[in-house]
Amino acid sequence: MSQSPARIFIETGNFDEFREKIVSLNGEFMFDTDEMFRLGEAYFNRYPDSYSHRNSQEVLLGYEIARVCILEKILVDRDRHIKECLRSIIKDVSLVNPALQACVGEFGFEHVLSIHASVMRIIDEIKFDIDRLPLGMVKERFIGGISIFYNISYIVKLALEAQKK
Amino acid sequence: MNARRLILIIDDDPVIVMTTRAVLDASGYETAGALGYDEALGFLTAREPDLVLCDMMMESIDTGVNLVREIKARYPRVTVILISSIADAVDNRYDFSKIGFDGFLKKPIDPELLVGAVREALDRRGGA
Predict the structure, then answer these.
(1) Domain ranges of chain B
(2) The domain containing residue A131 runs over which residues?
(3) Chain B residues touching residue A154 (CB < 8 angstroms)
């Protein structure tokens, strides 16, 4: 049975432990609308001040919690080098061109293009579940979390189009 | 021409600022970022951008709305697009027509939509 990120969040003492545990699951964890809500509730129970945006570090942590889960779902069953490439781009978007060049060199342009398309499908599927969350701060954190993936995918798309030329 | 049009992106999330800047940089705009109310007004004191993208929720739920009002009062020439992820939840709190922003986008923003909205807003603004 898939594990619950909300349960993992409750059982781990800090964000680094949570991230480490989530990464170790290789994407095998629940992440539907109900689980997102449970994870959001667990986060707000631990950081109640972040509900009214009074503590910006805790607010940013909320986005990071969402991003760790989204990224691991995107990376499920990818080649190790593709994972490294995507992780490096997420950390620093200025690395898009060198990271993509390395991937295209190793896997070929068409394969990298197909990976980009499948990443977009996963992002859209996750967005579909986020859209079903009730209006409120839990939804706000997940929307903030997923927003960067749309931006990064767009930059990757532009970089791929440039490489095609 | 997009060249040299300066866009200030205001959001308390540095990753959003970084990636949004990358999207707009790729379209030929000059971009800058600010992580909150004070930093944004500090930037504007030194340099007036052509357009501001301002997140609604930062230090508090209505920081963005207050900041837009302040920017429009001090720098009426600057085009302002307000951004929110919780627009539906707070629609009833404000009479948006009185805040004075020039556009509104809902997160998560489709980057192509963002680029189009920025271009249209700057076209409406006209001039250099």
Answers:
(1) 6-125
(2) 5-164
(3) 23, 111-112
pLDDT digits (tens, 9 = 90+) for B11-69: 999 999 999 999 999 999 999 999 999 999 999 999 999 999 999 888 777 888 899 99
Chain A residues with beta carbon closer than 8 angstroms to that of B57: 53, 140
Report whether B58 contacts B37 (CB < 8 A): yes
Q: Rounded to a whole number, what is the distance in Å from the CA of B37 to chain A's nearest CA?
A: 13
Burial of B101 (0-12, 13-18, 19+ CB in 10 A): buried
A88 CA: distance to closest CA in chain B (Å): 14
Quickly name the fold that domain B6-125 has: Rossmann fold (3.40.50)
Q: What is the pLDDT of residues B66-120, one digit of tens each?
A: 999 999 999 999 999 999 887 655 555 666 666 778 888 999 999 999 999 999 9
**Quick check: A52 and B107 CB within 8 A?**
no
Total Cβ atoms within 10 A of residue A151: 24
Could you tell me the pTM of the whole model? 0.93
Residue pLDDT, tens place only, A127-151: 999 999 998 899 999 999 999 999 9
Do A120 and A152 contact (CB within 8 A), yes or no? Answer: no
Q: Can you list the residues of chain A whose pLDDT is less than 70?
A: 1, 53
A145 neighbors B16 (Cβ within 8 angstroms): no
